[in-house]
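Good morning,

Attaching, inline, the backbone tokens for the sequence recovery test we're adding to the shared suite. The designed sequence is right after.
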């Protein structure tokens, strides 16, 4: 019996402005993916490195099959230095599954898979095992390249139903200098500020690389009198959505309670079991989570 421990996170699919729920992503993706090859789905999503690309490598159900969900595997591909390689003809393949990745003896010139995550879309819910050290913007950026006609936003499901965004009065963003995948980093603003305050400082990059500098960004929130609690919560949600799931963000509530980002966002640890761990195993686990969220919104 094979076993694999996985942590799933849940998001609500909304429009880009995060003002209304969207339920058409599943159908639009199914239409887009029909009759595509790997080459059609391979997208560059990093402005600073055009050798790293993301790929929606395989998906279910197959074209023309009616289901109430869409499941897919996403791989991050980059030039090989180590790890597993892709088949030489992978660009012409209709799909690329995890078990088709192969160990290689000679890696020169090969393309390898450096990261894998899975997602399932059902209605206006997105379930994924994308690591909590990565923001959902990794998925959102890829999706915007695959479906450029319309952008979507993703709000992490709040694990505490008694928590209200309108009760947030203070947020502290700690530095995240080591996380290269994160869209949220205060490293560059800190460098610019130091250079402006002390133009003659030397070796600043080395100083920061050695972690001799720590920085925090502190923000206070205050609800205007003419804004309703609902509008205030919606506007805060639009601001905080990209970072709610990050461990280096600390929220202070109006009752003095302090909560870290990872404590706000819903997550569920699941042990996948079966003779083999495959797509069906993931699909069943993720559909169960959606059913649980629908039953206990």
């Amino acid at each position: 019996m094979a076993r694999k421990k996985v942590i799933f996170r849940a998001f609500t699919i909304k429009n880009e402005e995060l003002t209304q729920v969207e339920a058409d992503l599943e159908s639009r993706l199914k239409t887009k993916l029909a009759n595509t090859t790997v080459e059609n789905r391979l997208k560059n999503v990093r402005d600073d490195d055009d050798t790293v690309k993301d790929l929606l490598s395989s998906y279910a159900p197959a074209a023309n099959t009616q289901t109430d969900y869409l499941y897919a595997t996403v791989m991050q591909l980059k030039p090989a230095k180590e790890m597993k390689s892709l088949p030489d003809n992978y660009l012409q393949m209709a799909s690329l599954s995890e078990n088709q990745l192969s160990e290689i003896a000679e890696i020169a010139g090969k393309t390898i898979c450096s990261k894998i995550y899975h997602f399932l879309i059902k209605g206006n819910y997105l379930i994924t095992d994308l690591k909590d050290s990565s923001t959902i913007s990794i998925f959102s950026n890829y999706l915007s390249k695959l479906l450029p006609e319309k952008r979507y936003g993703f709000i992490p499901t709040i694990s505490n139903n008694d928590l209200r965004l309108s009760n947030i009065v203070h947020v502290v963003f700690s530095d995240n200098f080591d996380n290269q995948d994160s869209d949220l980093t205060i490293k560059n603003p800190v460098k610019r500020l130091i250079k402006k305050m002390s133009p003659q400082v030397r070796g600043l990059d080395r100083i920061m690389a050695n972690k001799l500098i720590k920085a925090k960004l502190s923000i206070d929130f205050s609800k205007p009198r003419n804004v309703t609690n609902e509008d205030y919560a919606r506007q805060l949600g639009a601001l905080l959505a990209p970072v709610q799931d990050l461990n280096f963000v600390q929220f202070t509530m109006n009752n003095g309670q302090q909560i870290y980002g990872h404590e706000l966002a819903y997550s569920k640890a699941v042990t996948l079991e079966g003779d083999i761990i495959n797509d069906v195993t993931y699909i069943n686990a993720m559909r169960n989570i959606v059913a649980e969220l629908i039953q206990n919104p």
